[in-house]
Amino acid sequence: MALFAAPDEIRPLRHRLEDFLEKHVYPAEPVLMAGGDEGRAVLRDLEAKAKAEGLWALGHPKHLGGGGLSMLDYAYINEVIGRSEPATQVFGTTTLQTVLMLDAVCTQEQRERWVLPSVVGDLRLAFAMTEPGVSSSDPTQFQTAARLEGDEWVINGRKWFISAADRSAATIVMCRTEPDAPQHEAFSMIIVPKETPGFHIVRDVEVMGLHGIMSGHFEIEFDEVRVPASSILGERGKGFELAQRRLGPGRIYHCMRWLGASQRAFDLLCDRANTRVLRGRPLADRQLIQKFVFDSYQEIKASRLLVLDAAAKVDAGEQARIELSSVKVSCAKTVANVVDRAMQVYGAEGMSNLTPLESMYREVRFGRIVDGPDEAHIERVAKRILRAYRDGDGWDFGER
C-alpha cells in the first residue's frame, strides 16, 4: 500500500487531466510556446474544452464557482497539471493565489467586478510588487507611493517584471500609503484598472528568451494615477499581511507544478535510457545513467513528501512558514536537476525544440528566484529552527 499515493477519490480526476494533456495540450505545445495570435487562439479553444469537461479552476473556492479542492487534494491534481507549463493557463489555475488573497478581504463590489470574473476566466489581474533598483527580498524598500486626496488615491512609482500586465484588466499595486507608520504597516494594496490615465506599460522585459502564451513580464509606470478611495484592498497598512496571503499559497502551487515537470522529465529520461543504444547496449546499462535515475528518483520522492506535508499543514490551519520555504527551495532544485539530467541523456536533441526539455529548462530556472530567492528562504528556515532551540523547544521531526 502506497501511503502517499493519490487517494482513490482523486484518481479519476487525475486520469481525466492526464487524458486531456495527452490528447489536447501536448500536441499544441509548440504553438502555445510560440505565443502570438495563433497561440492565443489555440489557448482560448483549449480553455473552452477544459471548461466543457469540468476541468476548470479545480482548486478555487467552491463559493466562488471553483472546484473547492483542499490544499492536499489539489496537490495531487496540480502535480499533473504541472507536466505542461501552458496547462496552468488551460485549466484556469494561474489566478488561484490572487483570488485567494482577494477573497479574504474584498468588498462585495470588488468581488463582483474583479474576483468572480477572474475565477471563470473572463479577466485576469496582474500583481505588482517588484521594483527596479530595489532588492525585492526586502520589500520595505519599495518606493511606489500613494497619497489620499479627497476621495481618490494618487499613485506614483514604477514596477517591473509584472506578469501579464498587458492582458490584465487591472493591476494590484503594492504601494506606500502610511509614510509615518512602522515599515511593515506602511504599505497597502490598491487596484488600478488598466485604462486609468497615467498607467503606462513601459516595456516587456524579455526573460530567458521565452515568448509563449505564459510570457510577458512588464515594466509599468504610475504617473499621478488616480483611482477611487474604494480601490484599496482590505485595510490601510495591511499590504504585507495581504502579500503573505498570496505568496504563501503561491509558493506551494509552484512546487506542485514543479513536481509535475519533474515527473515528465523523469519519464523522458527513463524512456530515452531504455531505447537509446550505444555500442550495442542501451544507455540504461551504463552506471552513470543509472545514477541519474537514482538521484532523480530520490529527489522527486523527497520533494513530493515535503509538498504533501506542507499542504496537509496548511489544510490544518497552520501558517507552515518553515515548510513552505523549505519546499520552495527543494522543489526548485529538484526540477532543475531532473530536467538537466534528461537533457544530458538526450544529447543535442535535448537542447533543441524537438523535445519539451529545452523550454522546460528555461522555465524552471525561474524557480530559484520567483516568490523569493532560495537564499532568503534558506535563511528564514534556519533562523526559525535555531530560535526554537534557543527557546528550549527544539525541533523533533517525529512530532512535527
Whole-Å distance between the termini? 23 Å
Q: Encode the helix/strand succession as letters.
A: HHHHHHEEEEEEEEHEEHHHH
CATH topology of the largest domain: the name is Butyryl-CoA Dehydrogenase, subunit A, domain 3
Q: Which CATH top level class of the largest domain fits? A: Mainly Alpha
Helix segment tally: 11
* Proportion of residues in β-strands: 5-15%
Q: Output the radius of gyration.
A: 22 Å
Helix content: 40-55%
Mean of the pLDDT scores? 95
CATH superfamily of the largest domain: Butyryl-CoA Dehydrogenase, subunit A, domain 3
Shape: globular
**Order of strands across the biggest sheet?**
1-4-5-8
Number of domains: 3
Secondary-structure content class = alpha+beta
What can you tell me about this protein's structure?
With about 400 residues, the protein is of the alpha+beta class. It has 3 domains: about 10-105, Butyryl-Coa Dehydrogenase, subunit A, domain 1, CATH 1.10.540; about 125-235, Butyryl-CoA Dehydrogenase, subunit A, domain 2, CATH 2.40.110; about 240-400, Butyryl-CoA Dehydrogenase, subunit A, domain 3, CATH 1.20.140.10. It is built from 11 helices and 10 strands. It has helices at about 10-35, 35-50, 70-80, 85-90, 95-105, 110-120, 240-275, 285-315, 320-345, 355-365, 375-390; strands at about 125-130, 145-150, 150-165, 170-175, 185-195, 200-205, 215-230, 230-235, 275-280, 280. The strands form 3 sheets. It has a 4-stranded mixed beta sheet with strand order 1-4-5-8. The chain has a 4-stranded antiparallel beta sheet with strand order 2-3-7-6, with no helix packed on it. A two-stranded antiparallel sheet has the order 9-10. Strand 9 and strand 10 (about 280) form a beta hairpin. The model has no long low-confidence stretch (mean pLDDT about 95).
